[in-house]
Design goal:
The structure is a single chain. By secondary structure, this protein is α+β, with helices and mostly antiparallel strands. Helix content is 24%, strand content 43%.
Amino acid sequence: MERGTAGASVCAFFRSWFTRRSVDEAAAFLTEDARFIGPGKTGQARGRAAVIEYIRREILQMREPRSCAVSDLSEQEIAPGVRNVSMELALGNGVQGHVLRVFCTLVQEAADWRIRSIHVALRDAGGAEAARPLPETV
């Protein structure tokens, strides 16, 4: 688990998922009551076990690791030990790429930031939210 800011934890979580394709590494960032909302109709999971299973299925569908480039990262303190993080996440595999808009709420547990909620929206080339799911993953 990467220590530091809530934003750094979110970045490390997505690298674990898409670049290293490690379910165990990604799972270490989640709270017990974690929730995930993705861009497709089936992209929802409630509870740590369900989110882990969602990530596991997504990783199995990936043909190869994806690069992750973060931009426009913003971290906001909601209360002591609670942060909202938003960012643009560009995913690529050498052939195609997608840009996601990511919103997360994190809570501090000891020295670590853990993800309690994740909401992912797909952006089209013009920067607007797209209604279609990502091919293969998310």
